[in-house]
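Review session, final week

We close the course with one last complete record, chosen because it touches almost every idea we covered. It is Dehydrogenase, a protein from Cupriavidus necator with 335 residues. Go through it on your own first, then we will talk.
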Amino acid sequence: MLTVVCETPGTLSAQNRPMPMPAEGEVLLRVKRVGVCGTDLHIFTGNQPFLSYPRVMGHELSGVVEQAPAGSALAKGDVVYVMPYLSCGHCVACRQGRTNCCVNIQVLGVHRDGAFTEYLSVPQAFVHKAAGVSLDQAAMVEFLAIGAHAVRRAQVSAGQRVLVVGTGPIGMAAILFAKLRGATVTALDSRADRLAFCTQQLGAHASVTVGEGDEAQLAVLTDNAFYDVVFDATGNAKAMERGFRFVAHAGTYVLISVVAADITFSDPEFHKRETTLLASRNATTEDFETVLAAMRDGHVPAALNTHRMALADVPAQFRTLLDPAAGVVKAIVEC
């Protein structure tokens, strides 16, 4: 079977690997669609802190069941999506239902080989029927669930002022689900094309371009109070540190981004505002179900999928997804 491997940063190769043999309790999937995530781009560029090479990338996937264990609720031919955070089920986090931050987590495409391949064997607990959505939609559930999880973790409510800093796909997901909760959402980014997408396609109420005077614009938009909830989805340590300034008194700051750096902030300002600081990692089954419901109700625009390529073309074309001029929001690989 065709498998695309990231050998070292910047190097992708097409290999012919044997089909996997599913172990007891595993489902054999025919991979059909794989969403390309910022994590995949970071793996390709050598900026993913939890990874060793070589690695088969890809954790946003949908497919068709080829073989399921006896007695499983899944059957050959079922269209499915995969929850790619393989949690242990017994650690301190899992016992609290916080499987997204499992002590022993194995993320497909990061800690173990992922879905840039034709067939994949996955424990059946992490394979779910994709009822009522298309293969393309099912391949986009995971990144949207990360945004939905962050919004749920922040307990965003109707009438709150929300700022999303960084409007890549994860930031866009946070915008979408904050808006669905009735918040007034502002997007902050350096890219005019991304900001236009957020207002035109996702319904963000306002957008501000990073640069001179941006903080003053944010102040005007909030009557100098700033934001009840601020989400950082930049993946940039300096931006993450700067974001503390945009949090209102009694507000909440949510770091969706993860970077291989120390993050510092002004303790007097932090205490003066009694800021709540939250990390948001991955997503849970509840968040995946939230996304699926939003898709079925027509709240997730198809325009999020801007680019496509075949699995065989990934080694030659993957680098093009890094070009800001290409206008990539979400690329989908067809297997």
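Two points worth writing down before the exam:
The mean pLDDT is 96.
The domain at 147-279 is CATH 3.40.50.720 (Rossmann fold).
Good luck, everyone.
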